[in-house]
Amino acid sequence: MEEDQSCEARILPATRRFHPRAFGERKEKHVKDLETKLASLEAAQQHAHKENERLQRDLQKMATENEILRATTTTNRSADQHSLEPTTAGPMTYIPSDFCSNVLQGHSNKHPSQRIATSDSGERLLAAGAAWDYIISHNLFKRGLVHVGDASDRLKNCARCDGQGPVFSENATLAAMQQSIASGTGDLL
Q: Which residues form a coiled coil (predicted)?
């Protein structure tokens, strides 16, 4: 019995020392887990904030585009009521359907296509819809320098068939844009 008591006396302090150490280790591990979770939540919050800013910029851009489209549509309607002359005022008053019908004039396939093909020589070939997208996304157009009516007149002569309908080379489209600037009144340069 005395031996049991001495053994118990030796084990008890070791057990008492072990429990606080285990508690401290568990506490330290829990703190590290919380710090890791906090870091991941902060990173997710930062990502969500950046995404929110990007979406707000996109929304503002689309709202501006809608405003421009509404203004040009109103301008076109009032101009149509006063005059039967075609619109030739520049990029902000020219609509894609006018562009496509103009460049597809004289071709049997009158449906605008967004198709982009590549010629045997590796040159990009743009269908009417894709040519329109190329023009309106170009920096020259965004700066208001391109006279779309003039550019579409120039593109008419550059149309070729790739087996699926009329297409325009990317180089010819760019050249038509640049020539429409050069043929302007001088205040566009």
A: 24-72
